[in-house]
Structures are given as structure tokens and as C-alpha cells.
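Z., the sequence and structure:
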Amino acid sequence: MLPLRYARRWHIAGGLILLAILAGAIAPAILPWLSDGSGGLPNVDKWMHGIAFALLAIWFTGQYARSSYGWIAIMLLAYGLLIELVQTFVPYRTAEWADFAADAIGIGVGLAIATMATGGWSARAEEWLESKFA
């Protein structure tokens, strides 16, 4: 982990984000355009998986050094598998390998963005906040 002043808060926020994504993954679809069924946008769930996991990768690469990016990828892939496993027990949800593939692509995109630009963003955010409010 990077030497962050508010590391505990970053961890708590990350855990809450993971719980919110899990809750969204097992909740019934409440907006018709989020469904691939009649009237829904095609493949919108795959896009949502990819975007969510790209953002998760960016989130966690904000708190960890580049040497940890491989572990971040492995842990997020395991989280994606967990979501698909949990969905097998939810009657109105289905587990799909294509969702897991979208997760993996999202993780790759997020790690690429982190490597090129956003890695360690939490430390920069803390510095900026301290300069504004200290």
C-alpha cells in the first residue's frame, strides 16, 4: 500500500464500493433499459460490467504501488467470479461467462489507464486536499 495518511478511510470506502457493486449485481433490474430483454439496450450489462471493473481497478491502483497491480487484477478477477457464483443462487439473475469476460476486459482497461495516468491518485488527492484545507 502507498504511504497514505488516511489509509483506513480508503480501505473502508473501497469495501463499501465492493458491497454496493455486489448489491447491484444481485438486485432486480429496476430500469427497463438496463435489461437485455425486450426494450433493453443490447449488451448493456456487459458494458456495465466492464465499466464497473475498470473503475474498480482505477480505484484500487490509487492506493497501491505499481508492483501490486498484478495482485489487484487477480483479486478483482476473483471478485468477478464471486459475483457470477452468487448470481447462480438468485432466481432472477443469471451467471454468464461473457459477464466475467467483460469484467476481465474492464480490469485490463483500468490497469492500462492507471499505468499511463491515474496510478497513485489517492496520494495526489490527499496532497491536494491538505493544500486546500490545511
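The mean pLDDT is 92. The two ends are 24 Å apart (CA to CA).

Let me know what you think.
H.
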